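Supplementary notes for students who missed Thursday's class. We covered one full example, reproduced here. Read the sequence, then the structure, then the short commentary at the end.
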Amino acid sequence: MDTEKMMAKGICDRIGTEESFIKYQKAGESAKKTPRAIPNHVQAFRLVTQALLDGETGVISSLSEISAVGHRIAQGGSLFRQSVLVTDEVLRGIQSLIPLAPLHNKPEADAVLACREVFGRKMPQCVVFDTSFHATMPEKAYLYAIPYEYYEKYKIRRYGFHGTSHRYVSHHCAKLMNCPLEDLKMITCHIGNGSSIAAIQYGKVVDTSMGLTPLDGF
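Structure (token representation):
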């Protein structure tokens, strides 16, 4: 990523409400927030493509210039321990985890389906899970002090979140220290809309402050 540059960024927010809007910013220019009716994720993707193709603010001349689409998914459960390309099976897996993260996985699965509708099934889609970096936690770290049957029946356990951030911070820290990540023990901190810490030993997470849902943290 060090040799790549951002061309544009933006967000469609408050989807499905009267306060929905799109915020778009071309590199080197000021962000522009525009109230728009965005009833669903399909319309959100259409607005995004319109912004990217716009004669004044756009950064591409054809959708064929887009090689792939990436998605950040909050909850990967025990099913997904790494990033994967979207298939029908992967999509069903994401949807099966909606009970563990109803506010996150449902709209994220909708976004994958919307992307298929706008770009077609041939467009490669990659999903990156917030929980996958924490998949190396030992059982003593991820189990709660509650009856074990709750874990067996309902998958209630510590999953950890902000994994993409903790992964980046750990690798960047090792780079700054000019030391192999596999030789380090560190505490990484994520401070953003939510906050959390993770204990990383020799490149693998051994504990984190986030639990079953993204509501935990500090």
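Commentary. The chain has six helices and nine strands. Helices lie at 41-53, 88-96, 105-119, 139-142, 148-154, 163-177. If anything here is unclear, bring it to office hours.
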